[in-house]
Structure formats: structure tokens, C-alpha cells
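Researcher: Let's do a round of design. I'm pasting the C-alpha cells now; please hold your answer until I've finished.
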């Protein structure tokens, strides 16, 4: 049976047998499926705009799947142009720190760190350094 979550389709096969855990606890396969889907739904909800800020009707429609996809300068077309918009990992470190081992969360590019649509709404100082990583 196909299940769609955050644009991905998964084909799950549910067996009618029981899964026995620790010889006493019996769990039906749909409970295992529910746990799997619950974990995956938290992954799909990693980005959201900052709440409580004024947003235009266009801003309300923005999400990681539909950020600006068109070439930004139609009169200056490059054949090798690649769109970098979407969700990126980010970290904020002191300006002389090495590359981070762990990133703090997700930011929606092309929106600035301070903006509502970035999903962060944070301010950085001149002593800070932003790191971005796209997987």
C-alpha cells in the first residue's frame, strides 16, 4: 500500500502475523508502522516560518518545496546555473572557529537568517560566522 509523506512515497507491506518482543509483549505490525510514520512526520516538519510576524499572502504559500525555482536574471542566462534554494543545515560559530561537527538546524535558502521565512528569525553579530551545508 503506498503511503506519501512530505513528497516521498513509501511502499509498506504489512504482514498479518504478530511480532513477539521479549516473549511476553505482542505487538501487531500496524503499531510498528505507526511508530515509523510518527518518526518520519517529525522529519517533514523541520521547517516552518516564524509565528507571530506579519506575512503577506504570498509568504503564507512558501514552503521548502516551492521556493523560487526560476533563474533570477533572465537576460544573463548561464548554461551551468544550478538553483541552490531549499533547506540547508546551518550553524553559528565564532568567526575564527573551524568547520562545525554538528549543525544546529535547518534554514530555508534564499531567505536571510533574520527573516521570518528562513524559519529562524535570529540576529548574528560581526563576531559570528555562519556555516551552511547542503546534503
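Researcher: That's everything. Go ahead.
Model: Designed sequence:
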Amino acid at each position: 500500500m503506498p503511503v506519501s509523506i512530505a513528497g516521498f512515497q513509501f511502499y509498506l507491506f504489512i504482514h498479518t502475523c504478530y511480532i513477539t518482543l521479549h516473549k511476553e509483549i505482542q505487538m501487531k505490525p500496524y503499531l510498528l508502522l505507526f511508530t515509523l510514520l510518527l518518526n518520519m512526520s517529525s522529519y517533514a516538519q523541520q521547517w516552518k516560518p516564524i509565528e507571530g510576524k506579519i506575512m503577506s499572502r504570498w509568504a503564507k504559500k512558501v514552503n521548502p518545496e516551492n521556493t523560487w525555482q526560476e533563474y533570477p536574471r533572465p537576460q544573463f542566462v548561464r548554461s551551468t546555473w544550478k538553483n541552490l534554494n531549499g533547506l540547508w543545515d546551518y550553524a553559528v560559530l565564532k568567526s575564527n572557529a573551524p568547520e562545525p561537527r554538528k549543525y544546529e538546524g535547518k534554514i530555508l535558502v534564499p531567505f536571510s537568517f533574520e527573516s521570518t521565512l528562513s524559519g529562524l528569525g535570529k540576529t548574528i553579530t560581526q563576531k559570528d560566522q555562519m556555516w551552511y551545508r547542503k546534503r
